[in-house]
């Protein structure tokens, strides 16, 4: 009979395409993992993987088998989650993906409240780009992900919990630094510094300013808001950051000024994404209530 252990090992090999790395991930010896995979293939009468000394490939038939195996593992994981939810909210381990333009600014505000209200909670945080997290939620590798909308998430359900506007960040020496509000047509757009492609905040910022993606062509960009803000402090240009990030990036800097972007908002919406059949919806609702309390303070 096929075991859950064999399914777990096979999915790990699919993920890493490397038996040694898959064994390390599963905390077993490579020989134990290989034996389990060989036995699984023998039971099914098919080869799931092609392997030699240099690489591991998934066979065409193996792709279909692994897709079904992933559904089985997901169903079993959610069966355990469902049983634990009857005891206490957030008592089961929970994996949450968060994008880099949210994680450093949201988590310090909300996690202390989560720990206080749910001391038994066991949250595992994974930080990555939106496209990676959406795929991980779909594949069952994450329970949920916190993203900024709008962002394509076909097949997933969004639970919105916060909305915010953007602020234009400039050096204190800028002639517009003392303004309280600024429209996009008043900014020097040729000096605007944004994140590299692949970060949804770049698209959201350009959309808020009614600009096409091709507008940001100065050649200066970064992979973090912290770096962009430091470039602004060095008078290399200006940038746009979400309101949530102001305390961490701007408030304590004597070189920077934040001016509200006076364009129709909200400029982005924060939401939890889950699979349609995810059984931990009650946990998401508990987190949303807790998050709203902390963010409103």
From TrEMBL:
Keywords: DNA-binding, Transcription, Transcription regulation. Residues 2-59 form the HTH lysR-type domain. The keyword Cell cycle does not apply. Pfam families: HTH_1, LysR_substrate. The keyword Transcription applies. InterPro entries: LysR_HTH_N, LysR_subst-bd, WH-like_DNA-bd_sf, WH_DNA-bd_sf. It comes from the Bacteria. Belongs to the LysR transcriptional regulatory family. This is LysR family transcriptional regulator.
């Amino acid at each position: 009979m096929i075991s859950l252990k064999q399914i777990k090992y096979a999915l790990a090999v699919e993920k890493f395409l490397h038996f040694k790395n898959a064994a390390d991930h599963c905390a077993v010896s490579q020989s134990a993992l290989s034996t389990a995979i060989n036995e699984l293939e023998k039971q099914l009468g098919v080869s799931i993987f092609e392997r030699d000394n240099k690489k591991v490939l998934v066979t065409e038939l193996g792709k279909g088998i692994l897709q079904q195996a992933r559904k089985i593992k997901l169903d079993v994981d959610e069966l355990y989650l469902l049983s634990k939810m009857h005891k206490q909210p957030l008592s089961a381990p929970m994996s949450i993906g968060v994008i880099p333009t949210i994680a450093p600014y949201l988590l310090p505000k909300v996690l202390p409240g989560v720990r206080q209200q749910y001391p038994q909670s066991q949250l595992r945080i994974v930080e990555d780009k939106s496209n990676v997290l959406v795929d991980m939620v779909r594949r069952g590798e994450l329970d949920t992900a916190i993203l900024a909308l709008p962002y394509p998430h076909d097949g997933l359900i969004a639970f919105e919990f916060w909305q915010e506007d953007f602020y234009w960040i400039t050096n204190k020496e800028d002639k517009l630094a003392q303004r309280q509000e600024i429209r996009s047509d008043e900014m020097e757009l040729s000096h605007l510094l944004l994140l590299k492609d692949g970060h949804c905040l770049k698209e959201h910022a350009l959309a808020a300013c009614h600009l096409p993606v091709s507008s940001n062509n100065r050649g200066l960009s970064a992979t973090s808001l912290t770096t962009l803000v430091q470039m602004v402090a060095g008078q290399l240009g200006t940038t746009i950051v979400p309101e949530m990030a102001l305390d961490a990036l701007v408030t304590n800097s004597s070189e920077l000024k934040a001016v509200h972007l006076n364009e129709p908002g909200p400029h982005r919406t924060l939401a939890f994404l889950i699979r349609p059949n995810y059984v931990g919806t009650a946990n998401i609702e508990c987190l949303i209530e807790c998050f709203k309390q902390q963010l409103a303070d």
